[in-house]
Design brief:
Blueprint (H helix, E strand, L loop, with lengths): L6 H11 L29 E12 L2 E6 L11 E7 L9 E8 L10 E2 L3 E2 L4 E4 L4 E9 L5 H8 L3 H25 L5 H14 L12 H12 L13 H19 L3 H6 L5 H5 L6 E10 L7 E5 L9 E9 L9 E2 L4 E3 L3 E7 L2 H5 L5 E6 L5 E3 L1 E5 L4 E5 L8 E9 L2 E12 L8 E2 L1 H6 L6 E7 L8 E6 L8 E2 L1 E3 L11 E7 L6 E8 L5 E8 L5 E2 L4 E4 L5 E8 L4 E5 L3 E8 L5 E8 L8 E8 L6 E10 L4 E8 L12 E3 L3 E9 L6 E6 L7 E4 L7 E7 L2 E7 L8 E7 L9 E7 L3 E12 L2 E9 L4 E5 L6 E2 L5 E2 L7 E8 L7 E6 L6 E6 L28
Parallel strand pairs: 9-11, 13-20, 30-36, 38-45
Antiparallel strand pairs: 1-2, 1-3, 1-10, 3-7, 4-5, 4-6, 4-8, 8-11, 9-10, 12-14, 14-18, 15-16, 15-19, 17-18, 19-20, 21-22, 22-26, 23-24, 23-27, 25-26, 27-28, 29-31, 31-34, 32-35, 33-34, 35-36, 37-39, 39-43, 40-41, 40-44, 42-43, 44-45, 46-47, 47-51, 48-49, 48-52, 50-51, 52-53
C-alpha cells in the first residue's frame, strides 16, 4: 500500500543532508524512458534500502500499473522493475521474484522463484501463470537462487507465514501513511489503527468517538507502556507532529520484530526466526513507502544492522494478489457528503472484494452530463465505508455516480452520491414552542432547532452569554434521518436546565469543518401566576378597573378577551400587583365567561386561561347619603362635615345590592384605620343594617379617625364588583365651648371675655358679625384637675345687642361659623346711633342717654 512522508519529515531530512530535490531523467523499465533524481530517502524505522519502481503491464493494455495495487497477476502479464537512482548512485546486489501460484499442483514446487538479476538495471519478468502472492527479494550482496528456494519452498507453513507477512505489511504501511500524512482524517486514522491492531493480535478496545490521537495512544500504550507519554492534545503543532512521527516509528519497529514488539504482541515476523535454519543468508522483512509526488515508485525500508560474519542479508517485500472480480459496490443511504470536505459513505460490498477494495484506483465522480471529476477514495475497513475526499475536487452541488478502475477494468457503484454545501446556520433558531418550554430549574427539556439544513451537524454544545468564565458544554442531539442522510430542516437537542439560571445562552453547532455556528436562545423564568382570576366585569359599566394579584405579573405584556378591551397599567415593584382597565364591547349577560389570552414579554405564544374573564351583574352604587348630626356641638357645620369624636349616623341610598355585600370604610388619602362591615354586622363601635332593598343605615364611632379625613365608603358586591368610592363625610375637629363669661368691663371700647371648653386652640378669630373678626392672641390655658378642659381669653368690642350671637373663625378658614353662644350677662352693649329725621319730619333727633 502506498505511503507518503510528512512535509516536516522531508524538511528535516533536507536540512540534515543539505541537499535539495534535483530533476532526474525518467525511463520505462521496458522501453528505456527516464526518471527524475529522487529526493533523499528516510524511514520511520530501520533504514532506506533504495527507491524502486515496480509495475505490471498486461497484454490488454500498454499502460503499466503500480505493482503494490495490482489485483490480477495472470499468465502473459509482465512485472517491470526499475531502480530509482540518484545522481551517480549505483544499486549493488541482485533481485529476484518469488511467486505463489493460485492453483497448487502437488507434482510441482509450491513456489516459483526467478533467477537473480542485477539490481542496478531495469528488469522484467513474464508471469507464467495466475499468481496469488508475490514477493520481491533484494540481496545487496547478491542472492543464491538455491538458498532462496530452499528457504521459502520447503513447506506450506512458510507459505502461510509469507501470506501473513503480506497482510502485516499492508496494515503497517497503511498505518504509517495515516500517521505521517497531515491530511489524514479522523476516520482514516481510526480505520488504520483498528486494522493494525487486528493484524498483530492486540485485544485493544478503541473508542471510535475519541480523537485519533487518543486512539493511537491507547493502541501503542498497549504495545509499549513507554509510549503512554504521547500527548495527542499537545498545544504545539510541531510537538504533535513529532509525537505522531514517534507513533509511526513504533509501528515500523513492531513490524520488524523488535524485542519490545515481541514482548507486547507476540506475533512478530516468524521469517526472522526461521532464518537460523539457513546459515549464510539472513532474511529480513521490509515495507514500502510511496515516493513524494510527483515522483513514482516506492522506497523500501528494512533493518540495516550488520550481519553476522560470513552471512549475506536478503530483504523481502511481499504482497497478496487477490485475483477477485470487479467489485460490486452498493451505496448506502447515508449518501450525502459536504462539498470541499472528507466524508465517509457506507457501502455494501462482498467480503472478499471488500478486503482488497483499497487497491481500486482512478476513482471519479460522474455528474448527470457525464462529466467525470477525479477524487481520492480511502477504504475505512472498520466501518464498511469509503471516505470520499473532496477537499481539492472541483465540484458543484448535485448528484453523482462513483466509479473507479479494477486494474485496467472500469466499474461503477450502484447508487448516487449527493454533494451538498455545508450550512451556515444564519437563520437557525429554536422553534417558538421549544423556546417557550425552556424554563430554568425544570430539568431535561427536549427542544427543536429549525431554520436551516442540519444533515451535516456532528456536534452541539451550549454556553451562557455575558459570562467571561462560562465554558462550552456538550449536548445530546438527534437528527430525524441521521448524519449525512439527506436534507433535514430540524434537529432535536436536549438541554438540562436543572442548574441553569434565567438569561441568554447560545448553541454552538459544529459540522465536519470543525467551525462552530452560534444559535441564540433564552432560559426563561417561570410563568406569571395570577391568583385572583377571573377578572370580574360588571354589566353595563363603560370602563372598569381591576387589580391583578400574583407573582411575576411584570412579565405580562398584553391581555385579550372576546368582547372586551383590556389595558394593562403599572405594576408593583416586585410584580405582585398589576392594574387592568376593562372596557366591554358587548352587552353580555351576567354569568357569562370568556377565555383570557395572556401574552408575555419573554415568550412567543400566549397562554389561554379558560374562564379568565367573567360578566357579573350591574356594579353596586352608593347613590346618596344623609347624615345624622350630633346635638350640642355649639358651632355650625358645613355640608358633609361631621365632628370628630362623635358617632356618625348615615342613611345610605344604594343600588344593585347583593345579600353578601359589604361596606368598606377608609379615609380618601389612606391615613387612619380601614374598616369593613357586612350587612347586619354590629360591633361596639359600628353597625351596618339593611332597612330596605335600597337603604342601609350606618353607625360609626369616629373617635379613631384623624381630623381632616374624607371618609369614603365602597360597596363591595363580591361577585358584582365594587362601587365607586362615595364620600360620606369630612371629619373635622371643632372647638367645644362650655361657657362664655365677661371678665372685665369696657376699656378703650373693648371688653374682656373668657371661653371655657375643649379644643379651643382651633379658634383663630372671634366677633359679632362677619365684617371681620378680632384675632385671638392668647393660647388656651388648661384648667387644673379637669382633664382637657381649658380657658381662652379674648377681647371683643361691645356686643351690638344684649343677646348678640358669637361668631368664630377656625384656623385656616376665611369665613366665620355661627355658634349658639350669646353675649354673657353684664356685657355692656354698644350705644345705638342717634336717630335722624326725615326732611319732612319735625320730630327732634334723640340725644345719647335720652
Amino acid at each position: 500500500m502506498a505511503l507518503r512522508l510528512t512535509p516536516l519529515t522531508l524538511l528535516a531530512l533536507c536540512l540534515l543532508t543539505a541537499q535539495t530535490t534535483l530533476p532526474f531523467p525518467a525511463f520505462d523499465a521496458a522501453e528505456g524512458s527516464s526518471f527524475q533524481t529522487p529526493p533523499p530517502l528516510t524511514c520511520p524505522a530501520g533504514a532506506p534500502l533504495g527507491a524502486v519502481e515496480l509495475s505490471v503491464r498486461s497484454p490488454q493494455s500498454t499502460a503499466p500499473l503500480p505493482f503494490q495495487n495490482i489485483n490480477h497477476l495472470s499468465e502473459g502479464d509482465r512485472l517491470l522493475y526499475t531502480p530509482v537512482l540518484r545522481s551517480h548512485e549505483k544499486r549493488p546486489g541482485e533481485i529476484a521474484l518469488v511467486m505463489v501460484p493460485a492453483r497448487r499442483d502437488p507434482n510441482q514446487d509450491l513456489l516459483i522463484v526467478t533467477d537473480p538479476k542485477s539490481a542496478d538495471k531495469s528488469q522484467s519478468w513474464k508471469i507464467p501463470e495466475t499468481i496469488s502472492l508475490a514477493a520481491f527479494v533484494y540481496g545487496p550482496q547478491g542472492l543464491s537462487k538455491k538458498k532462496v528456494r530452499g528457504f521459502l519452498s520447503q513447506d506450506d507453513l512458510l507459505i502461510a507465514q509469507l501470506a501473513d507477512y503480506a497482510e502485516k505489511t499492508a496494515q503497517t504501511e497503511a498505518l504509517i501513511e495515516a500517521l505521517e500524512s497531515s491530511g489524514s482524517s479522523s476516520a482514516s486514522v481510526n480505520a488504520a489503527l483498528t486494522g493494525f491492531a487486528s493484524q498483530y493480535g492486540l485485544a485493544v478496545q478503541l473508542d471510535k468517538t475519541a480523537a485519533p490521537g487518543m486512539q493511537a495512544q491507547t493502541l501503542f500504550a498497549t504495545m509499549n507502556p513507554q509510549l503512554a507519554t504521547y500527548n495527542p492534545l499537545a498545544s504545539s503543532t510541531a510537538q504533535r507532529v513529532g509525537q505522531t512521527a514517534s507513533l509511526a516509528t513504533a509501528a515500523a519497529t513492531l513490524f520488524f520484530g523488535s524485542p519490545i514488539g515481541l514482548a507486547a504482541g507476540g506475533t512478530a515476523m516468524l521469517l526472522d526466526l526461521r532464518a537460523i535454519a539457513f546459515p549464510g543468508t539472513q532474511f529480513r522483512s521490509s515495507f514500502a513507502q510511496s515516493l513524494p509526488s510527483p515522483a513514482t515508485g516506492v522506497n523500501l525500508c528494512g533493518q540495516r544492522a550488520p550481519a553476522p560474519p560470513h552471512t549475506r542479508v536478503a530483504y523481502i517485500w511481499a504482497s497478496r494478489i487477490p485475483n477477485t472480480p470487479t467489485p460490486s459496490i452498493r451505496i448506502g443511504k447515508a449518501n450525502f457528503i459536504p462539498l470541499h470536505e472528507k466524508a465517509p459513505i457506507p457501502v455494501e460490498v462482498p467480503d472478499l472484494q471488500w478486503k482488497y477494495l483499497q487497491r481500486a484506483r482512478g476513482w471519479s465522480l460522474r455528474d448527470s452530463k457525464g462529466v467525470r471529476v477525479p477524487v481520492k477514495v480511502l477504504k475505512l475497513g472498520n466501518q464498511k465505508s469509503l471516505e470520499i475526499d473532496l477537499e481539492k475536487a472541483s465540484l458543484q452541488p448535485g448528484a453523482y455516480r462513483l466509479s473507479g478502475n479494477w486494474d485496467w477494468t472500469p466499474f461503477e457503484a450502484d447508487g448516487e452520491i449527493n454533494v451538498r454545501s455545508l450550512s451556515n446556520f444564519r437563520d437557525a433558531q429554536l422553534d417558538p414552542e421549544s423556546q417557550d418550554r425552556l424554563i430554568a430549574k425544570r430539568g431535561k427539556i427536549p427542544v427543536t432547532v429549525t431554520g436551516d439544513d442540519f444533515e451535516f451537524a456532528d456536534k452541539v454544545e451550549f454556553k451562557r452569554l455575558g459570562d467571561e468564565f462560562a465554558t462550552a458544554e456538550p449536548l445530546r442531539f438527534l437528527l430525524p434521518k441521521g448524519l449525512r442522510e439527506g436534507p433535514q430542516p430540524r434537529m432535536d437537542v436536549q438541554i438540562d436546565t436543572a442548574s441553569l439560571d434565567p438569561g441568554k445562552y447560545e448553541l454552538l453547532v459544529y459540522q465536519q469543518d470543525g467551525k462552530s455556528h452560534p444559535v441564540g436562545f433564552r432560559v426563561l423564568q417561570e410563568l406569571p401566576v395570577v391568583e385572583n382570576l377571573p377578572i370580574l366585569v360588571n354589566q353595563g359599566a363603560a370602563e372598569q378597573h381591576y387589580e391583578l394579584k400574583g407573582q411575576r405579573l411584570n412579565l405580562i405584556s398584553k391581555l385579550e378577551a372576546p368582547g372586551a378591551t383590556l389595558s394593562l397599567g403599572s405594576e408593583a415593584p416586585k410584580g405582585t400587583e398589576r392594574n387592568v382597565t376593562v372596557q366591554l364591547k358587548s352587552d353580555a349577560q351576567p354569568g357569562t365567561t370568556f377565555p383570557l389570552r395572556a401574552f408575555f414579554s419573554d415568550r412567543n405564544a400566549p397562554v389561554t386561561l379558560s374562564d379568565g374573564l367573567q360578566i357579573t351583574g350591574p356594579l353596586p352604587v352608593i347613590a346618596s347619603s344623609k347624615l345624622s348630626l350630633p346635638a350640642g356641638t355649639g358651632i355650625s357645620l358645613l355640608p358633609a362635615e361631621f365632628p370628630a369624636g362623635y358617632t356618625l349616623g348615615a342613611l345610605l341610598d344604594v343600588k344593585n345590592l347583593e345579600p353578601r355585600s359589604s361596606l368598606k370604610l377608609a379615609c380618601a388619602d389612606g391615613v387612619g384605620p380601614r374598616g369593613s362591615l357586612h350587612l347586619g354586622e354590629q360591633t361596639s363601635t359600628s353597625s351596618l343594617q339593611q332597612l330596605s332593598q335600597d337603604e342601609l343605615y350606618l353607625l360609626l364611632d369616629t373617635s379613631k379617625l384623624p381630623a381632616g379625613c374624607s371618609l369614603q365608603a365602597v360597596l363591595d358586591g363580591r361577585s358584582s364588583g365594587k362601587s365607586q368610592p362615595f364620600t360620606l363625610a369630612h371629619i373635622i375637629r371643632l372647638p367645644h365651648i362650655d361657657s362664655f363669661d365677661l371678665t372685665n368691663g369696657p376699656q378703650n371700647g373693648m371688653q374682656a371675655f373668657s371661653l371655657a371648653g375643649r379644643n379651643l386652640e382651633m379658634i383663630d378669630k372671634a366677633g359679632w358679625d362677619d365684617a371681620g373678626g378680632i384675632q385671638v392672641t392668647d393660647l388656651p390655658v388648661p384648667i387644673p384637675g379637669q382633664g382637657q378642659r381649658e380657658t381662652l381669653a379674648i377681647n371683643l368690642p361691645s356686643p351690638p345687642a344684649p343677646k348678640a350671637m358669637l361668631l368664630v373663625w377656625l384656623r385656616g378658614e376665611n369665613k366665620p361659623r355661627a355658634t349658639n353662644i350669646t353675649a354673657p350677662p353684664g356685657a355692656t352693649p354698644a350705644m345705638p346711633p342717634a336717630p335722624t329725621l326725615n326732611k319732612d319730619s319735625t320730630a327732634p333727633v334723640p340725644t345719647p342717654g335720652s
